[in-house]
Amino acid sequence: MTCRTALLFQTHFFDRGAARVFARLRRGLPAHYEPWVLIHLPPGAPVPPLLQRVPHHVARTPELRFPPYVTKCGGADWNLWNGGHTDLVPLHFLRAHPEYDRAWLVEYDVRFSGPWYRFFGAFEDHPADFIVPVLRRRTDQPDWMWWHTLRPPVPLAEEEMLCAFMPVWRVSRAGWQAVDAAWRAGWAGHSETVWPTAIARAGLTLLDPGGDGPFTPPALRGRFYSSTMQDIGLAPGTLMWKPPLLRAGSRPDMLWHPVKPFWPRVELRQAVRDLRMDLGAARRRLFARLLSRGVGEAGRAAP
């Protein structure tokens, strides 16, 4: 039986360039996919004129502060863009459209160097509840910068803690409902660790669609993307956090991210934010090593 599938093209702007990217993505979809532009807008901001020509779903900032998600949406210093909260936008859509069996999400700065149907079609018959790249356990990458944010209601062993990279993913109805239940139950943390960890804790299945990680089956190794798991920016590779790419590479049938135009002012602000995050992660690692060394020396000095 064909699964009813939504394709969500997530963006925070919709100009002619974004419209062309969406049109190409739309042309490559299987016939039963239903494409949507998923956009976040602040209160009072007009809907972009080009957006009115295509199926779209608007999520405005006040609507994203969903009261049942107390630990995720509360606090005077809450900010959608800090701390891994952009998953609130697709969750806003999925709560409004529970009729879909599955949903693919593709961020505006993801490209595929081939017809998109080759990528989507490879997983059409796969039953995984969450398909997401760069999927790994805490034991695989203990220095990932967002582990300290993960606070589930019950203690978890390190091998139960998962993280992923989420510019492109597919989730089943059971998968996103497991995430929704986790946020309602008081989970806290960056979305890129709560989603895979909560879905796995619910007894559901996960799959890495490429790369060479521990959740990638042999038939998919090296297919669809490459990343350097131990690097903070996942570089070098085709699917990275940073640096930005001006265009997709020429290697066929691969996912590329982040592909975006070069806006000097925006890129400078992002570079400063990235530098602060890198320095913060380095300070946390140094503090942890010093603390563990101090505890060890105190133990040896004890009579």
Brief overview:
The chain is α/β, with parallel strands linked by helices. Helices cover 32% and strands 15% of the residues.
Question: Could you give the distance between the termini?
Answer: 70 Å
The number of E-state strands comes to 11
Find the CATH topology of the largest domain: Spore Coat Polysaccharide Biosynthesis Protein SpsA, Chain A
| Tally of separate helices | 8
Percent of residues in helices comes to: 25-40%
How do the strands of the widest beta sheet line up side by side?
3-2-1-4-9-6-10
- Which architecture of the largest domain would the CATH scheme give at its second level? Alpha-Beta Complex
Q: Can you identify the CATH class of the largest domain?
A: Alpha Beta
Strand content: 5-15%
What report would you give on this structure?
The structure is a single chain. The protein has two domains: 5-262, Spore Coat Polysaccharide Biosynthesis Protein SpsA, Chain A, CATH 3.90.550; 264-303. 34% of the residues are buried. It has a seven-stranded mixed beta sheet, sandwiched between helices. A two-stranded antiparallel sheet has the order 5-11. With 303 residues, the chain is an alpha/beta fold. The longest helix is centred in the last third of the chain and has 38 residues, at 264-301. The model has no long low-confidence stretch (mean pLDDT 91). It has helices at residues 16-27, 61-64, 70-73, 88-96, 116-121, 173-184, 191-201, 264-301; strands spanning 5-11, 33-41, 56-60, 102-107, 111-112, 130-131, 136-137, 162-163, 168-172, 206-207, 255-256. It contains eight helices and eleven strands.
